[in-house]
Design a protein that fits this description.
single chain, 149 residues, 4 helices, 3 strands, 68% helix, 13% strand
Length: 149
C-alpha cells in the first residue's frame, strides 16, 4: 500500500508543479535531514533523502508538501525565511503544522485507495454475478446448436 501512496503523492507533486528529487542528504544534525522544501529560481523543489526507507520517504514527501501548501509564501519571503531558521519556536510551530498536514493527507490517500480497491473488487464481483450466468447460457445454447442454421 505504501508504494501506491507514494505514487499518488509523487503524481500530485508533479501536477502542482513541484519537482521531487532524491539525494543523499547530510546525516550530521541529529536527527538527520529527511527532506527539504525550497523555492529556487521560481521553482518549487522537494528533496528527499535517498537512504530512507519507502515509508520514511512517503511521510517526508507528504510533510514537505505540507510546507508547500501552508508555508510557501512565507518561505519565499526573505525576512520570514530568516525568522524560520533563526527562531526555534517559529520553526517548531511550522514543523508541527507540516506534520499535521502530512498525517491528514496520508489518511485521506489511504482511505481513497482502500475505497477504490473495494469498489474495484465489488465491481468485478458484481460483473461476475451479472455476466457469468449469461455467458453460461450463451455457451450452452451454442452447444445445443441454437445459433446454427
Amino acid at each position: 500500500m505504501t508504494g501506491k501512496v507514494m505514487t499518488v503523492l509523487w503524481e500530485t507533486a508533479r501536477v502542482l508543479g513541484i519537482e521531487v528529487m532524491e539525494f543523499q542528504l547530510p546525516q550530521y544534525p541529529q536527527p538527520p535531514v529527511r527532506g527539504l522544501y525550497t523555492r529556487y529560481k521560481n521553482r518549487d523543489i522537494i528533496l528527499l533523502n535517498q537512504d530512507d526507507s519507502l515509508g520514511e520517504k512517503t511521510f517526508t514527501l507528504a510533510h514537505e508538501m505540507g510546507h508547500f501548501v501552508l508555508h510557501r509564501h512565507e518561505l519565499s519571503n526573505r525576512h520570514l525565511r530568516t525568522t524560520y531558521w533563526s527562531c526555534n519556536e517559529y520553526q517548531v510551530k511550522k514543523e508541527i503544522e507540516a506534520d499535521h498536514f502530512a498525517w491528514k493527507l496520508l489518511a485521506l490517500i489511504y482511505k481513497e485507495i482502500r475505497h477504490w480497491e473495494r469498489s474495484q473488487r465489488h465491481y468485478r464481483r458484481t460483473l461476475n454475478i451479472i455476466a457469468f450466468p449469461h455467458h453460461i447460457a450463451y455457451f450452452k445454447s451454442l452447444m445445443r446448436g441454437r445459433f446454427f442454421c
